[in-house]
Structure to design on (417 residues):
């Protein structure tokens, strides 16, 4: 009995080793032909094991993705952007009778930019169709340079009415852009009464000058404290010596969403989403300029987060109505014009209105020297009886350069074809 058992065990062992031999032979033949699983890295045995590993891991990875879709798509989105996105992302909020003014702003963005643009247009529902129709009528060569998306005005449900009442209709929408456009990394927000006199990519490039604590960039509200508003009248904290103006606001929204903001309401810092409503509740009786005041309060408590760019990036009537006080504009010309207080539509500051009219009337595709610059210079000549008209050469200094570099680009396109 014992002998049989021994013989049997011997047989089993022998069979095992012969099978092993056959397999190893088979393996080495396949290896020579390089056909093991079609994997070409490392030894066949290892790659077979790795394949098994990956197969086992895949379902759990997919499960993780399902549970955290936001995280997943955010990451792939930002990877895609790093590699392919050379666009400047421009946002505007348009309500009431601002359709034409907004279109003129977008036109100025398009005329002088060499790089592609994406427009995020937040507007009241009744304006959506007019925006779409107008933009789709722009000539094809210009259409190729931009894409756009139109959004309704939205507020956090809980306090929608309160937010809508604050300031002019819809103006506080800009505070919510980092929360609404969750997939967007960075954004240039501008008011509807902005005109670009140089390529949008120039201001976009300031994002790369942000240090690790900067998350937004704006210009001071005033250069001259003697006529400053905040330093004379504000009943709330404000940034710096004269406050900041939010008509041109460059944001790294990824950083805004990540930041915890110091404040004077809680002992611990709050996220952007958490800070807005308590801030409004605390200061609503003391603020005059709505959401711009809230931004001033936030950056008063977090000054290291703000990158301040000089006044020629947000040039307003205040910079010239009592005499010229924006020194950087004196040196380099106006980069971005901001016709606040309705000056594009009344007769108070004819120099500002002249720029608006010239850009609005310029027919797409015509020569910009003769159909934009020359008529503008002629009409600015008639405004020299005003303080702003007297420095109107600052309005065209940068514009001239922008126009001639667009022309050069065009010539190079033509000669290279
Ligand atoms: C609002 O203004 C009043 C009057 O200047 C001041 O006494 C009060 O402290 C201010 N409120 C806040 C929250 O700063
Ligand atoms: C914005 O900040 C994030 C996080 O620091 C960074 O990854 C991203 O590159 C920044 N975007 C730009 C346009 O600089
Ligand atoms: C970034 O620059 C601001 C000034 O604009 C400064 O207050 C802040 O300390 C700087 N942050 C870092 C991390 O260097």
């Amino acid at each position: 009995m014992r002998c049989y058992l021994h013989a049997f065990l011997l047989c089993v062992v022998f069979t095992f080793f012969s099978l092993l031999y056959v397999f190893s032979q088979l393996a080495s033949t396949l290896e020579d032909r390089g056909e093991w699983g079609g994997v070409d890295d490392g030894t066949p045995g290892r790659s077979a094991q790795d394949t098994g590993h990956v197969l086992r891991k895949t379902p759990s990875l997919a499960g993780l993705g399902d549970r955290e879709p936001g995280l997943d798509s955010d990451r792939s989105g930002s990877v895609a952007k790093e590699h392919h996105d050379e666009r400047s992302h421009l946002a505007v909020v348009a309500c009431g009778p601002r359709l034409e003014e907004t279109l003129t702003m977008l036109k100025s963005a398009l005329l002088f930019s060499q790089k592609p643009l994406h427009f995020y247009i937040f507007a009241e529902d009744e304006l959506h169709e007019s925006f779409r129709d107008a933009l789709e009528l722009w000539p094809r060569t210009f259409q190729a340079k931009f894409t756009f998306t139109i959004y309704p005005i939205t507020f956090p449900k809980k306090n929608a009415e309160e937010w809508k009442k604050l300031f002019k209709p819809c103006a506080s929408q800009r505070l919510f852009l980092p929360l609404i456009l969750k997939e967007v990394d960075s954004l240039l927000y501008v008011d509807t009464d902005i005109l670009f006199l140089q390529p949008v990519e120039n201001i976009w490039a300031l994002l790369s000058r942000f240090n690790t604590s900067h998350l937004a960039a704006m210009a001071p509200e005033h250069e001259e404290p003697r006529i400053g508003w905040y330093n004379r009248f504000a009943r709330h904290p404000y940034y710096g010596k004269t406050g900041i103006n939010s008509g041109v606001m460059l944001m790294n929204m990824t950083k805004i969403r990540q930041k915890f903001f110091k404040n004077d309401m809680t002992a611990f810092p709050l996220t952007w989403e958490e800070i807005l409503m308590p801030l409004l509740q605390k200061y609503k009786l003391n603020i005059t300029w709505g959401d711009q005041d809230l931004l001033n309060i936030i950056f008063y408590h977090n000054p290291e987060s703000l990158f301040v760019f000089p006044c020629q990036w947000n040039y307003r009537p205040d910079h010239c109505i009592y005499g010229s006080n924006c020194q950087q504009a004196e040196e380099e010309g106006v980069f971005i014009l901001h016709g606040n207080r309705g000056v594009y539509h009344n007769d108070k500051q004819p120099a500002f209105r002249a720029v608006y009219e010239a850009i609005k009337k310029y027919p797409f595709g015509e020569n910009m020297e003769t159909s934009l610059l020359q008529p503008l210079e002629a009409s600015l000549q008639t405004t020299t009886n005003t303080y702003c008209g007297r420095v109107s050469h600052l309005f065209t200094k940068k514009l001239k350069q922008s126009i001639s570099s667009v022309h050069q680009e065009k010539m190079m396109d033509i000669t290279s074809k």
Remarks:
- The chain is about 50% helix and 10% strand.
- Residues 2-33 form the longest helix (32 residues).
- The radius of gyration is 31 Å.
